[in-house]
Specification:
The complex is a heterodimer. By secondary structure, chain A is an alpha/beta fold. Chain A has two domains: 4-176, Rossmann fold, CATH 3.40.50.620; 201-325, Rossmann fold, CATH 3.40.50.1220. Chain A has helices at residues 18-30, 47-55, 74-88, 99-111, 221-229, 238-242, 273-279, 308-325, and strands at residues 4-8, 11-12, 15-16, 35-42, 60-65, 92-96, 116-120, 122-126, 129-136, 141-147, 152-156, 173-177, 187-192, 206-210, 233-236, 263-267, 284-289, 302-305. A seven-stranded parallel beta sheet of chain A has the order 7-11-6-1-4-5-12, with helices on both faces. In chain A, strands 15-14-16-17-18 form a five-stranded parallel beta sheet. A three-stranded antiparallel beta sheet of chain A has the order 8-9-10. In chain A, helix 3 crosses helix 4 (99-111) and helix 5 runs parallel beside helix 8. Chain B is an alpha/beta fold. Chain B has two domains: 2-213, HUPs (Rossmann fold); 227-257, no CATH class. In chain B, a hairpin with a 2-residue loop joins strand 10 (152-159) and strand 11 (162-169). In chain B, helix 2 (65-74) packs across helix 5 (188-196). Chain B starts with a strand and ends with a helix. The chains are: A alpha/beta, B alpha/beta. Chain B: Belongs to the ETF beta-subunit/FixA family. Chain B: Residues 21-211 form the Electron transfer flavoprotein alpha/beta-subunit N-terminal domain. Chain B: GO terms for molecular function: electron transfer activity. Chain B: It comes from Aquibacillus salsiterrae.
Chain lengths: 326, 257
């Protein structure tokens, strides 16, 4: 018997984030029989986004359109989602382990008196339980968890679960839901965009990261060029952040972000244990460092001993050449 | 202002992780204040210095956590509370921790609760938001700036690199993000003073809770280490040759670009 899984969709600049499609796929990993019910909240018309969720495998989608839902706020979105939970009565709830997911999922789990497994990278059905795998100690170890009581609530780490194929012949019902929002405790005055305008670091397929070796703010420029070319994001070691070369939002490591891209290019990073915790589960690691003894070479698939200011621009040029040739 | 800080003892970030009997072996590990909780302690002390009042550190843990509470007291907090579950509970989860804290806060007047946005060990990121929900407090996660004026809190928060500027009111629970402040090192006089500051120890009984009230909702069934990464190929030759080889390897061997 299939169960009902509620997938909470998430949008950025009015487009669904990839992790929403990954969450739909995760619902089907729990059981192919599962019915996947999507929900998205936003200010304007959400029909296109809801339909997209259907194409990616949702069976039906609730849309909540409200002028107070232009941007995510914990109180308003929680109220809306809880309204849908009461209506749908799901057996499980899945969403992305993103800024929104980290804020909202614990609140929902608390309200439902449920267990929550956050930051899941893998899940499977085993012996009647859903077994979730998640990194602990920033990826220095992993644990497998089950939820023993209440509705299953889980957040999945972006980039780890493959979405289902996009199928635009799929059909599913869209069900608008109306809610009234009276009091608002939190007012968003402004949002300052910073860091890279492009790809989000935690979702990037390619990360080009700089350490103390970049020597200054300007030193990051060749890294940005390479990242842009590869459609990736720029990250940094704590050393580079502490030295003021870049913003802390770029920090990768045990006290920063944990990333698992397909390709990680470490430039001028020595490879302290705390940094390795944040990136050593990347699929392919390239290290560029002047010091042949640098620890980063112990985890790199490919290493170049050399000056990053010489190597990185050449690498960018060479990849450009290759792209032109193919 | 009545300010509380939720503090967790975690492994020092230098520690290697070892597994014994399907759990993380923590006996020999050096413990520290969870680095994100350090921002919370620093902020609490700063807010108290501005607005007056008292900072209480509260930690759910074992006997060893007293040392981290004392460090927070040496940083300037006024008193500590340790909810010691070492002997009573085998496998607490976030529900357990929050249930204990909820019981503790039942008869407390709260203006501000600060916590780290995540702990660097289990990284669940749940305790702050779950507790706020139970205490019916506004919850703001990953804050990077906090200014309180009267009952109004002006806050900047980090949202995946963007900065959201928001306004809300007390009472409030906020979780702290890197960039909020520079946590101070405890000074020698601070350490001396901390020795005389009170640290209360509470157990399940003291909170009028039974074991089944705090029974976890999740269970860890396996803990394992990632496969060790082997050092790969160090390329050779002139930089130009190395770069060409690298691009070729990424394209043909790793098939990644």
């Amino acid at each position: 018997m299939g169960k009902k899984v509620l997938v909470i969709g998430e949008m950025k600049n009015n487009k669904l984030r990839n992790v929403t499609f990954e969450a739909i796929a995760a619902s089907k990993l729990m059981s192919k029989e599962n019915e996947v019910i999507g929900v998205i909240c936003g200010e304007g018309n959400l029909e296109a986004q809801a339909t997209e969720m259907i194409y990616f495998g949702a069976d039906r989608v609730h849309t909540i359109e409200n002028e107070k839902m232009k941007a995510y706020t914990s109180q308003v979105f929680a109220k809306a989602i809880i309204h849908v939970i009461d209506k749908v009565n799901p057996d499980a709830i899945i969403m992305g382990h993103t800024a929104v997911g980290k804020d909202l999922a614990p609140k929902l789990a608390s309200r439902l008196n449920s267990g929550l497994v956050s930051d899941v990278i893998e899940l499977e059905e085993f012996g009647g339980n859903i077994v979730f795998t998640r990194p602990i100690y920033s990826g220095k170890a992993f644990e497998k968890k089950i939820i023993t009581d209440g509705i299953i609530v889980a957040t999945i780490r972006p980039n780890n679960i493959t979405p289902l194929d996009h199928d635009d012949t799929r059909k599913g019902e869209l069900e608008p839901v109306n809610i009234t929002i009276d009091t608002v405790d939190v007012i968003i005055k402004d949002v300052l965009k910073k860091a890279t305008a492009g790809v989000d670091l935690s979702e990037a397929k390619v990360v080009v990261a700089g350490g103390r070796g970049v020597k200054g703010k300007e030193g990051f420029e060749p890294l940005y060029e390479l990242a842009d070319l590869l459609g990736g994001a720029v990250g940094a070691s704590r050393g580079a952040c502490d030295a003021g070369y870049c913003d802390y939002s770029l920090q990768i490591g045990q006290t920063g972000k944990v990333v698992t891209p397909d390709l990680y290019i470490a430039c001028g990073i020595s490879g302290a244990i705390q940094h390795l915790a944040g990136m050593s589960n990347s699929k392919v690691i390239v290290a560029i460092n002047k010091d042949p003894e640098a620890n980063i070479f112990n985890v790199a698939d490919y290493g170049i001993v050399g000056d990053l200011f010489e190597v990185v621009p050449q690498l960018t040029a060479e990849i450009k050449k290759m792209k032109l040739a193919t | 202002m009545n300010i509380f800080v939720l503090l967790k003892s975690t492994f020092d970030t230098e520690e290697k992780i070892e597994i014994r009997d399907n759990r993380i072996d923590d006996e020999a590990a050096e413990l520290i204040i969870n680095p994100y909780d350090e921002y919370a302690v620093e902020e609490a002390v700063k807010q108290r210095d501005t607005h007056g009042g008292e900072v209480t550190i509260i930690s759910v843990g074992g006997e060893r956590s007293e040392k981290q509470i004392r460090t927070a007291l040496a940083m300037g907090a006024d008193k500590g509370v340790l909810i010691n579950i070492q002997d009573d509970l085998e496998e607490p989860d976030q529900f357990t921790t929050v249930r204990l804290l909820q019981a503790f806060f039942e008869d407390k007047e709260v203006d501000l609760i600060l916590a780290g946005n995540v702990a660097i060990d289990n990284a669940s990121g749940q305790v702050g938001p779950r507790l706020a929900d139970k205490l019916n407090l506004t919850c703001i996660t990953t804050i990077t700036s906090l200014t309180i004026d009267g009952g109004v809190a002006s806050i900047e928060r980090d949202v995946e690199g963007d900065t959201e500027i928001i306004e809300t009111h007390l009472p409030l629970l906020a979780t702290c993000q890197q960039g909020l402040n520079e946590p101070r090192y405890p000074s020698l006089p601070g350490i001396m003073k901390a020795k005389k500051k009170p640290v209360d120890e509470l157990e399940l009984d003291d909170l009028d809770l039974e074991e089944e009230d705090v029974a976890p909702k999740t269970k860890t069934i396996e803990v394992f280490l990632p496969p060790e990464r082997k050092a790969g190929k160090l390329l050779e030759g002139e930089v130009t040759e190395q770069v060409q080889e690298l691009v070729s390897l990424l394209k043909h061997e790793a098939k990644i670009i």
